[in-house]
Fold this sequence. Notes:
By secondary structure, the protein is α/β, with parallel strands linked by helices. The protein has one domain (about 5-150): P-loop containing nucleotide triphosphate hydrolases (Rossmann fold, 3-Layer(aba) Sandwich). Helices cover about 20% and strands about 30% of the residues. The protein is built from three helices and seven strands. It has helices at about 10-20, 40-50, 140-150, and strands at about 5, 30-35, 65-70, 75-80, 100-105, 120-125, 135-140. The chain has a seven-stranded mixed sheet with strand order 1-7-6-2-5-4-3. A hairpin with a 6-residue loop joins strand 3 (about 65-70) and strand 4. Helix 1 (about 10-20) packs across helix 2. The protein is globular. The mean pLDDT is about 95. The structure holds adenosine-5'-triphosphate (ATP) and magnesium ion. Adenosine-5'-triphosphate binds near residues 8, 13, 42 and 59.
Amino acid sequence: MNYKVVTYSESETIELAENIESEKFPNMVICLEGDLGSGKTVFTKGFAQAMEITEEVTSPTFNIIKEYTTGELPLYHMDVYRLDGKVDDLPIEEYYTKKGVTIIEWSDTIADYLPDKRLDIKIKNSDDDENKRTIIITPHGKKYEDLCEAVL
Ligand SMILES: Nc1ncnc2c1ncn2[C@@H]1O[C@H](COP(=O)(O)OP(=O)(O)OP(=O)(O)O)[C@@H](O)[C@H]1O
Ligand SMILES: [Mg+2]
């Protein structure tokens, strides 16, 4: 089952993130796919704000993994673009069971290292409207299916 949401502004994508955040749970994993500038970090910032994280969430492109611990749950934000698929000895999988929420940008580049149960979010740009995004959400596992049913 896929869910499709179309947003026409940054704030609508943030609203989607807030809705999903409202059903968050420990060890939740969200996998973000989409072109450069499609809104993966915008989504993550919206999610973090809703978690009441007070630190500024910035793109972790150079650090790969950033941990934010001032919110209701820890947030682990990863941008794995620069790994070019080579996870090597980075402890990515350890984060899935640390009782926080893990959000991974460019998750499709590390497909073999993702958990079976997760929420996939694919963001597509539009050719004719620079602010339009088509967002396809695919839950894997009962908890994620229930979450989608509750908020989408
Ligand atoms: N509907 C929309 N949803 C989200 N962002 C939008 C939308 N319309 C326009 N934007 C703009 O698109 C840009 C998205 O940037 P963002 O850094 O979130 O992309 P990204 O997917 O994280 O890119 P990267 O692959 O470089 O990490 C922002 O400048 C944002 O204002
Ligand atoms: Mg980004």
